[in-house]
Each structure stands twice: as structure tokens, then as C-alpha cells.
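Practice problem: predict the structure.
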Amino acid sequence: MRRVILNTHLFIAILAGMFMVIQGVTGAIMEFEPELDRAFHAELSYIKPVGQPLPAGQIIDAVRRQLNDEPVVAYLPSLSHKLSSEVLLPSGIAFVNQYTGKILGRRNRGQTFLGYVRALHVRLGTGDAGKTILRWSAVAMLLSAGSGLYLWWPVKRISIRTKDGLKRFWFDLHNVIGICSLLPLALLATTGVIIGFESQLAPLVYKLTHSLPMHAALSQRKTHTETNIIDVDTAVATACTHMPGAMPSRVQMPQYGGLYRVEMFYPHDRITGSRNVVAIDPFDGSVVSLTRSADLSRGDWILAVNEAIHTGAILGLPGRIIASLASLIVFVQASSGAFIWLYRKRLLAPPIRVAEGVRE
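Answer:
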């Protein structure tokens, strides 16, 4: 049985190792995607606060004046007084100082480096075929962790011997790092499998929890003949009234969808804080639909927790650091495993009888 498990462990590494490394490295980068993006584009991201931020309407008007009345798709107010706000346009993104209304710079539509990293992590930069490969590579990662635990268990050694040469060093390093990182790697793999196969697993989750997916609370939308619409600040104020304590994180203009769509964020809710949306009729300011994170069903909440565990957000910054380091360990394990495989005859054959725990 040990030989079967060992061959399975090797076969999984050879077949899916490259894809697991891609997922690990890109996942480690994505854990700090906002911080990295700001570091790469500091001139667009950081501002010096002066006084009070301008109302959203004034910021949008200022941007349109500077860009020859280009239409605005959405406004993303800054969640920090030291960071700029963003205005989404058909041509790209304008970064704006919310205290002065001045555009700091623009980013045209197109794939950025971090956008390409995200595309690699989610779909190998391709499409459905890439998604399929990666969801099964997550399964392979889970099987690799389980088989590695089985192979380590008879000896249970957590030490690295440096006196027996470089080959033995890599062998011990592979085992020690593998067992020490087993829990976070297993969590990343398990949650990744659930995300990858969510369309198939979600119905089971809802069935087991006796719940249904949450649907936005809808109200009757009226028919209007007038052409005047409420301003964006009124729409934001209406959303804040229905979500006390939440901060607006995105406001979509009614020219794109027929409604003001205000996304609200609760800073202290790490799991479902961003799952709040208020849709507002642009003519009379009435609320057309309301989605509150507090109204999530048990199934919705379980799926949200799964996502928060996968991204590390459930523990805040410490969780993201753990998730990033665990993702990078995939590369270390693949490298050390490849080295062991290249010298497998000398490392795994007698007189080293690992299965029985007998010393050389």
C-alpha cells in the first residue's frame, strides 16, 4: 500500500505540479493585490488630505469637465482618507483626489500585470478550459497533501539533517515543510475545490442547511415620464439611511443599468461586509431592491465563510499573510519534490527503509 501511495504522490506531482505551482504563486501575489497595485502606482494612489472630501456629485462633474464630458460608469469612493478615489469610464479608470477633484492620472482599459496574475489564478489566462484544469489541480493538491501525510506518518520526523549531504537535506526539508504547512495548505486546497465546483456543490450546501439563496428584497418600480433624475449624492444618502454604519464603496450610474446601484461595505465584517447593495430609482429616489449581508441564508453564509478562509480575510492581515506564505510553500514543495524525484533511486531505495523507520 505504501508503494501505491508513493507512486500516486509522484504521479500527482508530475501531472499537476506545474498547475499547482501557478495557483500557489499567483495566489500568494493576489493576497496583497491592493497593496501591490498601490505600490506600483503610488502617484495615482496616495494623496494628502486637505479639509473635507468633496461630495460625489462635484467629483464626478469635475472629472467630466477635465475629460471633455466623457460619461461616467461608476464612482468608487475611497475607503481611506489617504487614498484616492476612482471614477470608472468607458475608456478606463481615472484616479482622482477627492479633496480637490483633480485627476491624478488614468489607466486605460487593458490587462495590467496584477490583472494577468488574477486571470492566471482563476482560469490560466484562457477561459473555461483553464478553469477546468485549475479546479482539478486543486483536487490534486488536496490528494497530494493527504498522500504526503500518509508517507510521513510512520517515521514522524520533524528535523533536517545537514551532515548527510545535500540530497538528504532536500529530502528532510520536503518532509518537514510539508507536515508543518499541511493544515493551511489543506484549507486552501479544500476551499479552492469548493469554489471551483461551487455550481455543483452549492445546491448540496443549501439542501443540507435547509436554506435557499438570498434574493434581493424587491419593491414595485414605478413608470416615469419625466426626464429629470436625482443626483448621485441623494442616492448615496438614501443608501446610507438603509445601511447605517456602512460605507459606500461603489456607485453605478443609472445610465448603465437604469438604476443607481450603491454597494455598501461594513469595515468590521470580514466575511460578508461587502455583500450589501441598494438599488435606487433615479427618478423618485425610492429603493427598488435591497440586499443586506445580515439577511444571508445559512447556505449563503457558509459559502461566504469558505471564500473568506480561502483568501485569508477571515483573520484579517494575519490570515492573509498565512495564506500567502502557504501558497508560496507550494513552489518550495514542488522544487524539493522534483529534486527528490531526480535522485529517487538513491534517496528512496534501500538501505533507507523509511516505511519501517529503520536507520541507515
